[in-house]
Amino acid sequence: MSNNAKPTRNESLEYYRRVTQNFNVNIHLFEEVMEVSRSQVADGGSLMGDGKKVFHIRSSKATYTCDHVIIATGFYDIPYLLQVPGEELPKVTHYYSDPHFYAFQDVVVVGAMNSAVDAALETFRKGARVTMVVKGDAIGSRVKYWVKPDIENRIKEGSIKAYFNASLKTIREHEVDIDTPEGPVTLKNDWVIAATGYQPNLNFLEKTGIELSDDDVRCPVLNADTHETNIPGIYLAGVICGGMNTHRLFIENSREHAVMIFKDIRQKAQDA
């Protein structure tokens, strides 16, 4: 049960952990899928003949075979980099988690959307001295409506410093340089949280043989009723279905993907 209108991160993780445990889901953690291929298998088990196609999943730890593949890789694997000197320093992260880690330290948060706002507010409330660097002239319009007034008021009162129409130019071990409309600014700095967004691993889909649209969205080709791709037996679920348009799909409107996928798999099994 959630104590709030929306579950917290810990509540969600606890729910998913219990589902995995109760339904005995065969889950393999910290194992990257490197390649998905398929071969023809005859009734006798030979890789020749007119038998069914099976998929071979090569991971960083093992190789598996299966009849169907569902790819639900989301879009958090590849962050958009700042492309500035010093980004490789250990003090720079594109993934924010525990606000206590930054307590009583000088933190720069780059970005103006939900991830950046959450990082700025939470680290500020744990005692961090927070500065936001925003390339636009305001906090993002898609920031959660119950959070947006909070960050705007903290900036207005000066609790969180924000540079708008600005960009981070250089990161050093103990300082950062910021370009602002009023000129360059150098700040003392311990940590940089670069909440600049992420992109889906579409190269993995292409390498698997899944077709993508020719436009900038690069939307994967799939059957809207079944979520099966141009490769029979390979399905997509979740945000990855939208290609570069990562704001169209989220938890609430992509849960139905699983229903469509497994309905199609069961129907094919009945028809076989």
Walk me through this protein's architecture:
The protein is α/β, with parallel strands linked by helices. The chain is 23% helix and 24% strand. It has helices spanning 9-22, 114-125, 148-157, 202-208, 251-254, 256-271, and strands spanning 33-40, 53-59, 63-66, 69-71, 78-79, 92-93, 106-110, 129-133, 161-163, 167-171, 175-180, 183-188, 191-194, 198-199, 234-236. The longest helix is centred in the C-terminal third of the chain and has 16 residues, at 256-271. It is elongated and about 70 Å long. Strand 7, helix 2 (114-125) and strand 8 (129-133) form a beta-alpha-beta unit. The chain has a 5-stranded parallel β-sheet with strand order 6-13-7-8-9, covered by helices on one side. It has 6 helices and 15 strands.
Short description:
This protein has 272 residues and is of the alpha/beta class.
What is the multimeric organization of the chains shown? single chain
Low-confidence spans: pLDDT under 50, at least 5 residues?
A: 45-50
Sheet with most strands: 5 strands, parallel
- Count every helix, treating DSSP H or I runs of 4 or more residues as helices: 6
Structural class label: alpha/beta
Strand order of the largest sheet: 6-13-7-8-9
SSE order, one letter for each helix or strand: HEEEEEEEHEHEEEEEEHEHH
User: pLDDT average, as an integer?
Assistant: 93
Q: Which percent range fits the helix content?
A: 10-25%
Q: What fraction of the residues are assigned to beta strands by DSSP?
A: 15-25%
